[in-house]
Amino acid sequence: MKARIVLAYSGGLETTVAIGWLAATHGAEIIAVTIDLGQGRELDELHERALAAGAVRCHVLDARDEFARDYILPSLQADALDQGRYPLVTPLGRPLIAKKLVEMARIERATAIAHGCVEPTDQARLERCVRALDPAIDVLAPARVWGFTRAEAIAYAETRGVPVPATVETPYRVDANLWGRTIAWSGSERPADEFRGERHLLKRPWGAAASQPAYVEMTFEQGVPVAVNGVPMSLTELIESLTTIAGAHGVGRLQTARYGRAGIDAGTICEAPAAVVLHLAHEELERFVSAPTLNRFERDVATGYADLVYSGEWFSPLRDALDASVRKVQEHVTGVIRLELRDGACHVVGRQSPLGLHDQSRESLDTTSRSAEIQGFRG
Amino acid sequence: MKARIVLAYSGGLETTVAIGWLAATHGAEIIAVTIDLGQGRELDELHERALAAGAVRCHVLDARDEFARDYILPSLQADALDQGRYPLVTPLGRPLIAKKLVEMARIERATAIAHGCVEPTDQARLERCVRALDPAIDVLAPARVWGFTRAEAIAYAETRGVPVPATVETPYRVDANLWGRTIAWSGSERPADEFRGERHLLKRPWGAAASQPAYVEMTFEQGVPVAVNGVPMSLTELIESLTTIAGAHGVGRLQTARYGRAGIDAGTICEAPAAVVLHLAHEELERFVSAPTLNRFERDVATGYADLVYSGEWFSPLRDALDASVRKVQEHVTGVIRLELRDGACHVVGRQSPLGLHDQSRESLDTTSRSAEIQGFRG
Amino acid sequence: MKARIVLAYSGGLETTVAIGWLAATHGAEIIAVTIDLGQGRELDELHERALAAGAVRCHVLDARDEFARDYILPSLQADALDQGRYPLVTPLGRPLIAKKLVEMARIERATAIAHGCVEPTDQARLERCVRALDPAIDVLAPARVWGFTRAEAIAYAETRGVPVPATVETPYRVDANLWGRTIAWSGSERPADEFRGERHLLKRPWGAAASQPAYVEMTFEQGVPVAVNGVPMSLTELIESLTTIAGAHGVGRLQTARYGRAGIDAGTICEAPAAVVLHLAHEELERFVSAPTLNRFERDVATGYADLVYSGEWFSPLRDALDASVRKVQEHVTGVIRLELRDGACHVVGRQSPLGLHDQSRESLDTTSRSAEIQGFRG
Amino acid sequence: MKARIVLAYSGGLETTVAIGWLAATHGAEIIAVTIDLGQGRELDELHERALAAGAVRCHVLDARDEFARDYILPSLQADALDQGRYPLVTPLGRPLIAKKLVEMARIERATAIAHGCVEPTDQARLERCVRALDPAIDVLAPARVWGFTRAEAIAYAETRGVPVPATVETPYRVDANLWGRTIAWSGSERPADEFRGERHLLKRPWGAAASQPAYVEMTFEQGVPVAVNGVPMSLTELIESLTTIAGAHGVGRLQTARYGRAGIDAGTICEAPAAVVLHLAHEELERFVSAPTLNRFERDVATGYADLVYSGEWFSPLRDALDASVRKVQEHVTGVIRLELRDGACHVVGRQSPLGLHDQSRESLDTTSRSAEIQGFRG
Asked: How far is A258 from chain C (nearest CA, A)?
């Protein structure tokens, strides 16, 4: 029997070329797996493209609800932001991709997994997740090995008669999922002005946001966001809805230049409207119902959780331990946070929680003011 | 109906005098409550003494197993040591005393609780626990109010015909329970040499320990110490047994001069043989089965937990959150630690855990060396 | 000789009444001291008012530059924000007020200091600072003792023929200085809508900010902000300038409901445009030139520093230790941060530092991308 | 001109063989450099051995005082212990070795540095230090490349006529310097009982220590240990003296099994009598003169410092920042700590500091008890 390799297939140039390259180099059957984390591309046509490129099968998996429930939610509840500030968009998707690849490798009896991650930190993250789940599976990163330029990759495909996606040449590296979108570029090619253009999730240049402010009331029950402006929604719907609302007001676009573990990244735009709004609201509500000593512990947990996600230590006893304390704290995180969205800015303008009463029974509080707080919160 | 006050009754001079003083000052009925945390005194006679002093009732409650299970064990599992070094003997007893007093106040329909704590930090700790459990109950600290010297307290009792315990005048303040004993003294009265005498739990002067070393194997199952040298025991028995064994080798006597929250304490001897051995063994086993990032988090939790116990924040959402993560980590803390006890010193000389295998499935380890570790651990 | 009391005199109702009350109650001469931290009131007339109220002398001290240089700057460099988010406006002023009061008490040979702080946390903070500087000086808080309502205070003054400032009755408590303004109100009296009115430093309702965005380039040299848009300024000028520019764009208004150490505060508006812009710019530049392990330490220092300022532990070996490390780090914090100010929002849109080269010699970096970063930073 | 390689030469089998191997493989001249950190071997004969093995030169550098002053002392003052418990013996030597190698490479115009470190963590540590000092110098680790067993290394030397040291075959890996000695062995070869034998620095089996306890008074001036039992000594002399005294009482031998960054180490004995005594004494004195909030910060610094040393981040802005705060704190760390040394155990039995008075002027203290403390401290 021929060896089998499960390939995380995005439909882009590199992973399309990788199908033929891996088959030739490893003498293996390639099983393409496309995991829908809400990246919003047309995934239907990927199936055909993968087969045309030589894959023996192509599985398209809808993992959006699982992503929201088991990856986004715990990290939201932990207040895990990279450097205390940036939503973890790409890093949160990696462990779920790893999990799906390992599951599929077992079903398909494959002995190796291949992926198209380019950035070293990102490669290490994915590989660490796979290794934690199944140390016996090999992990291949074709792009790390072959050293093709974009043009060479296209040439490689053409000589083998493989149709490749006619993507425009771009200096950007985009990664998107339900939680947001990151657009990275390297230093020397940085045409900064284009970032004011239309290539963004927010669908508008910086500053062209809705002229009137919007007010959003986020309802949490035990740490879970359950309604927007009083309308109950599933978590996936709620994130999509907030992405639209907050995005229309220019909220959630962050520009960063990170000094990465392996040196500085040249620059990244992160667009994550729902993440920015939800993190702000959750942090505010959690602080509102927590004593200062608890709040300080929560902030330590948040720092540790963000480091863990960033470094790909998702499947670990450390996360089990952090999750246990985060879940316990969420029991009190019930209430409503009112936010004002205004051209790029998001501010808390009201807060309300019935669970203040809980704390009152444990620590002496000013009963009057807390009660007043519960009745009305336009503040 | 007359008001009722529940008094934490130790049987000593101050709390005996306090019965009459509280009754007179507050015009109330006094319910004495003596809580056995393993302090090892003759508690039977206290009942008579309390009634003779004017109490309308005296309840003697055996809370030793509850103390071991719900107070000592969680803090042991959290590796909570004051300043990272000293077992928390007195502070761990306070929340349980508070809980029993509040329960008894409800049963007796009392509106206030009184106690004999002398040191300000200790008073604040107990009162914080009571307030967290029931903010409606008043807390009285007669010794803080009356300002009696020892002689005045005796005189006060005599003029009222109350028999008081004929305790020898002493510059020491001793507090003892199942977990250990602390002997505090204030600076100006400090006859240091007497501390080499026989007044100690360890029942021998410094340096007069057993001449031959002993080896103890501590077995933990999911963070719970369950056997000594292979002999299964209840937690209470196990602590008593270790107190005897380790005490005989002079292990567990620590001398400290703490810069307290309210200024420096003049000096404290802490004798806690079982606590010292169990903390060392538990920490070692936990570290042995934890990855470095988890171990660092555990150390942060330990620091936070110790501060929490010290400041009397036991009944709080913060402890719930810390406990949740501690309990999760304990699932892996199974194994045996071998210790050498030798005139005052306790060293780890071997370690063994079947749960190394667990970690291997999540993070790549050197399989060979870990397996070897499991087979024999005389090291 | 009559006893003397030095009173921190704000010119408001309470401290004006306090002059007569303290003189009568303590049989003492009252020395009024007004310290200009940039609160922007008319301080000239205070001199007359204090004498009219019975003070034997009134000193008006301009401490603005000292406040900027020795209090604002170190905490800015430490990235010290309350709860990681809110500028420390009122708490930063307290140690300098304490220092000036102690100096004046020594000059005037006064044995006590009096102040008009109302909130318990704030009283404790000021008193802790005084005690650290001179434990022999008594601290009096008339407002804690007399229990006057506002009307009673006015009546008290009138019966003694003391002219009091005809301030409008207000449910607000305002504290202002060079670094910003806080407006606090208690729960039951909270007419939230008025906070959208004109009583603010920002001189405009929420949302009525300048319609066009502004771009600001902040230049730092070794951690000190030295120029705005390339124009060199003293620190005091620079803060005033940024307050105007950023305030005009609605930046720097934060609404919070803090769960205080002594229970929840009902609500606070903090208006600190310069502080918000400078903290964001400094944090960004510091992160830009720091390796991740250093950045993590800086964040721990920031948390500790904020707690220290909040709790009034300013004059302490702890601050000396934190300051030493903060100052060391600042040696690398040289560069320019470009910010976009837009109706309430402040975003980093560019960063530039010549000191990337320094780090390159110590840790391997991607030289190309860092150099590119230095040349142009519109990104 | 021929290329030149500077080799860290220990005189052992591997580095002796490496001289010829590097010369042959790289066609380079080999400059042997032996750095005396107090490892106590006969270093004189190494010179001849290196030349006989083919080195063109051999430099023997005495770096003991520099090691004590610039590496041991700062980490002692920072209370940096691995995992809060183990002295950092080997890791502290690496940065100084790196520094000397880089200096010598510049003098000799060498383009590469070679070393004989075997353990991956240890290799990474040394290489990180070299890279921080001079990223242009190549670092070679022959032992990582050649894959020789011990027998093969001897055979390789014999075929080239190189005399190699006739060391006994041993499963141990010993590293020694002024600060202590570590003896590591891997899991499968672990003849645990031999560790009770005579191969140790302490020159006696476990338990055969001096029968009478000793008392040692350690005097610190501003964080620097300056005298033992009142006798002033240089730091190097003091460490040697304490090694003898404490070693004679069996103090300072620790056994550990570390879960290394790259998996668990099979086992290590660390013998560091002076380090154990000095760390205990310094920590105790520092805590004695520090308020609790400062003490907590110190403990955070200690954790960060230990991680930094362990991971080879010595030459970094992070260490500069930590050192700055540590040095500031040391200004108060003056006093005497009295210790009891008794068969393997070291206990603090007295403490004394004139600088308590300093703190009293900054925070309210119980003056009486502190003064008493200063007069006599037999405790």
From this structure: 7
Phi, psi angle pair for C196, to nearest 5°:
-90, 0
Q: What is the pLDDT of residue D146?
A: 82
Note the pLDDT tens digit of each residue in A97-123. 999 999 999 999 999 999 988 888 899
User: Which of A127, A290, A293 to mutate to test binding with chain B, by most B CBs within 10 Å of its CB?
Assistant: A293
Q: Using H for helix, E for strand and C for coil, what is the string for chain D?
A: CCEEEEEECCCCHHHHHHHHHHHHHHCEEEEEEEEECCCCCCCHHHHHHHHHCCCCEEEEEECHHHHHHHHHHHHHHCCCCECCCECCCHHHHHHHHHHHHHHHHHHHCCCEEECCCCCHHHHHHHHHHHHHHCCCCEEECHHHHHCCCHHHHHHHHHHCCCCCCCCCCCCEEEEEECCEEEEEECHHHCCHHHHHCCCCCCCCCCCCCCCCCEEEEEEEECCEEEEECCEECCHHHHHHHHHHHHHHCCCCEEEECCEECCEECCEEEEECHHHHHHHHHHHHHHHHCCCHHHHHHHHHHHHHHHHHHHHCCCCCHHHHHHHHHHHHHHCCCCEEEEEEEECCEEEEEEEECCCHHHHHCCCCCCHHHHHHHHHCCCC
Query: Could you say which of A213, A265, A363 has the minimum Cβ distance to residue C207?
Result: A213
* Residues C370, A207: C-beta atoms closer than 8 Å: no
Which range, of A145-149, B111-115, C293-297, averages the lowest pLDDT?
A: A145-149
Does residue B64 contact residue B37 with C-beta atoms inside 8 Å? Answer: yes
Residue B345, pLDDT score: 82
Smallest Cβ–Cβ distance between B266 and the set D288, D299, D372 belongs to D372
Task: Check A295 against C259: CB less than 8 A apart.
Answer: yes
Contact D369 B291 (CB under 8 A): no
Task: Name chain C's partners: 3 or more CB pairs within 8 A.
Answer: A, D
Prediction pTM value: 0.86
Nearest to C317 among D132, D294, D304 (CB): D294
Q: Which of A90-104, C210-224, D87-101 has the lowest mean pLDDT?
A: C210-224
Q: Is the pLDDT of residue A167 over 80?
A: no
Per the document, the length of chain C is 379
Complex confidence, ipTM: 0.86
Assess contact for C97 and C122: CB atoms under 8 A: no
> To the nearest whole angstrom, how far is the Cα of A134 from the nearest Cα of chain B?
7
Q: Tell me which residue in B261, B303, B368 faces D187 most closely, judged by beta carbons.
A: B368
Q: Which of B342, B357, B359 is the best mutation test for D, with the most CBs of D within 10 A?
A: B342
> Among residues of chain A, what percentage have pLDDT more than 70?
81
What number of C-beta contacts closer than 8 Å exist between C and D?
Answer: 94
Question: In chain C, which residues have their Cβ closer than 8 Å to the Cβ of D327?
Answer: 324
Give every residue of chain B whose pLDDT is below 70, as ranges: 41, 166-172, 185-211, 257-267, 355-379
Q: Give the mean pLDDT of A240-264.
A: 75
Phi/psi region, residue D234 (left: phi>0; alpha: psi -120 to 50; beta: rest), is beta
pLDDT tens digits for B212-229?
889 999 999 999 999 999
* Residue D82 pLDDT greater than 80, yes or no: yes
To the nearest whole Å, the CA of A154 is away from the closest chain B CA by: 37
Q: Partners for D (CB, 8 Å, 3+ pairs)?
A: B, C
pLDDT at residue D209 tops 70? no
- B210 CA to chain A: closest CA distance, Å? 42
Is the predicted pLDDT of residue D367 greater than 50, yes or no? Answer: no
The answer to whether the Cβ–Cβ distance between D297 and C321 falls below 8 Å is yes
